[in-house]
Prior knowledge:
single chain, alpha+beta, Translation Initiation Factor IF3, 4 strands
Amino acid sequence: MVNIEGLRLVDARWLEPPEPMEQVLAALDELRPGCGIRFLIHREPLPLYGVLQHMGYRHRAQRLEDGCFEVIIEAIADPGTGSRLG
């Protein structure tokens, strides 16, 4: 699991589609090994979850006190090589 210091913040709260998806996908393209993304958005990004799985990322989401969602994204590593699966 990525620690909080290794997370890149992508704050897409209150942006109109498709900007939130574009921002998080651009951040994934730049993600360094061992790092992750903290994605903030004002509604649950259900379409993103399947995209992440298909690309070899895992996520965990939670609703924040203000009603927005925080999604933590990290690569699924192949235990044999340490490289991202997907």
